[in-house]
Design goal:
18% strand; 478 residues; 5-stranded parallel β-sheet; alpha/beta; 19 strands
Length: 478
């Protein structure tokens, strides 16, 4: 492509092998795309490996793939390598066999590097600016925080990728969201992305690569940026991106699989140029003033059904006609009445975890709220760190003691209660304050009711027993 380019187009152009013609509507290019790396889990990869076996194919570059058990494993404090569910155990066993047979490194449940795939890859130093990473999980967009084109793919595409290290790909439209001005006190990356999702809707960025920019984005640390890119898929974005900067370079340096020495210095020169050119054209731009962002909570069954903590449950008659039926259904499922202050909604459970918000900075945020406080009577609260490494780092800082003294269960790492594929689930009718990314019907358990928010807001809800503005609590110093 000629002229000023977006970061997205620069990366796609560098990985473009050949053109496959025009897209379905004749506008966007179809191409064969080289993919640098992939991460596999025990839930979405089995059929891909079975397809390779049936076709008698090998994995083209096994060293470009890594496998992590994270979806179906137990997060019980006394961890073993077995689960009670026979189907889940079969997935784990087949996953291990696939690693052995195809020469792919796998982190099993007891591996000290085990964790949620989108937490593990960055902490290994395996996510580097300018890469293309595709994987069988929609939240592969997380890697955009490093200036990476990351996107989720289906099982047949996983098979194609493993066999060829390439994917047929349609170039996306370009969208940019700018958060202007400094981030207000008590507002987090989670609040920024939930604000955007509420503003543009669950499909507002469909068909787009969504780049984030602005003073509030630049001020975030890398882990906060990962939170934003992780949840960009919840407004329909196929790819999320941020230009890599010195914070990213510092995050990468010294990690087990990152470049080092002269190689790292040379790489950083290239990475510094990986940003959108001045004058590059986006198909759509959104500007949000960061000063107007407040702590967010969801009230419905889609991430865009959310409001600031000082809002009330909406009246279906007051929303747009094309959204009315969805609001009615959501309120019925969530058992909420229009006009109810969100801060009056009481909870039964509190959960901190997931690939969205279970990194060390997230746990520190929660600990600042919980130190010197206790979980409210009748609330069951639990924390599942994003990886075994995060768990060890938190324990080294004494965060685990803060959590346990406050009345939280200190669990092992895994996807846990983000989705009902393991033994961490809500009972029907239970209401949960959750730091996860999706609040769909039954997402955390059949009949379970999920309210999305930041880890600090989950902690505040846990100690008050209801959805609470964390800014109203006098926080103790960490």
């Amino acid at each position: 492509m000629a002229g000023p380019l977006t970061l997205y187009d620069k990366i796609i152009d560098r990985h473009r092998i050949m053109s496959l013609g025009a897209g379905v509507q004749g506008r966007e290019e179809r191409l064969l795309l080289y993919v640098d790396r992939t991460v596999l889990n025990e839930y979405t990869s089995p059929q891909a490996f079975s397809g390779l076996r049936e076709a008698g194919r090998k994995v083209w570059r096994p060293q470009a793939a890594l496998g992590v058990v994270d979806h179906v494993n137990s997060t019980a404090a006394n961890r073993t390598d077995a689960v009670e569910d026979k189907g889940a155990q079969g997935q784990i066993d087949y996953f291990a066999r696939n690693g052995r047979d195809f020469g792919i490194k796998m982190f099993d449940v007891l591996d000290p590097r085990q964790g949620i795939e989108h937490v593990v890859l960055p902490e290994l130093g395996w996510v580097l600016p300018g890469m293309v990473i595709a994987a069988g999980d929609s939240h592969t967009t997380t890697y955009g925080a490093f200036g990476v084109v990351g996107f989720g793919i289906g099982t047949s595409d996983i098979e194609h990728l493993l066999a060829t290290q390439t994917l047929p790909y349609t170039r996306l439209k370009r969208m940019r969201a700018r958060f202007e001005g400094p981030l207000p006190v008590g507002v987090t990356a989670k609040d920024l992305i939930m604000t955007l999702i509420r503003k543009i809707g669950a499909d507002g960025a469909a068909g787009h690569a969504l780049e984030f920019a602005g003073e509030a984005i630049d001020a975030l640390e890398v882990e906060g940026r990962m939170t934003i890119c992780n949840m960009a898929v919840e407004c329909g974005a196929r790819v999320a991106l941020m230009a890599a900067d010195e914070k990213v370079f510092a995050y990468i340096a010294g990690r087990p699989r990152s470049p080092s020495g002269a190689m790292l210095a040379e790489a950083q020169k290239t990475w510094a140029d990986m940003r959108t050119d001045k004058g590059a054209v986006f198909d759509r731009e959104i500007v949000i003033q960061a000063a107007q962002v407040a702590p967010m909570v969801s009230w419905g069954t889609s991430p865009d059904q959310a409001g600031t903590i000082d809002d009330v449950v909406p009246d279906p008659e007051a929303v747009a006609a094309d959204k009315r039926a969805g609001v009615v259904r959501a309120l019925e499922y969530m058992d909420l009445a229009p006009g109810t202050p969100l801060s009056d909604i009481r909870i039964d459970r509190a959960f901190i975890g997931s690939c969205t918000n279970a990194r060390l900075s997230d746990l520190r945020d929660a600990a600042r709220v919980l130190r010197g406080r206790r979980v409210a009577p009748g609330v069951r609260a639990m924390i599942s760190p994003g990886s075994s490494s995060v768990r060890r780092e938190a324990e080294a800082e004494g965060l685990d003691r803060v959590f346990v003294e406050a009345g939280f269960e200190w669990r092992q790492s895994g996807c846990s209660m983000c989705l009902a594929m393991n033994d961490d689930v809500l009972a029907p009718g239970e209401r949960c304050a959750s730091s996860t990314n999706r609040n769909f019907e039954g997402r955390q358990g059949t009949g379970g009711r999920t309210h999305l928010m930041s880890p600090a807001m989950v902690a505040a809800a846990a100690v008050t027993g209801r959805l609470t503005d964390v800014r109203a609590l006098k926080l103790l110093k960490a």
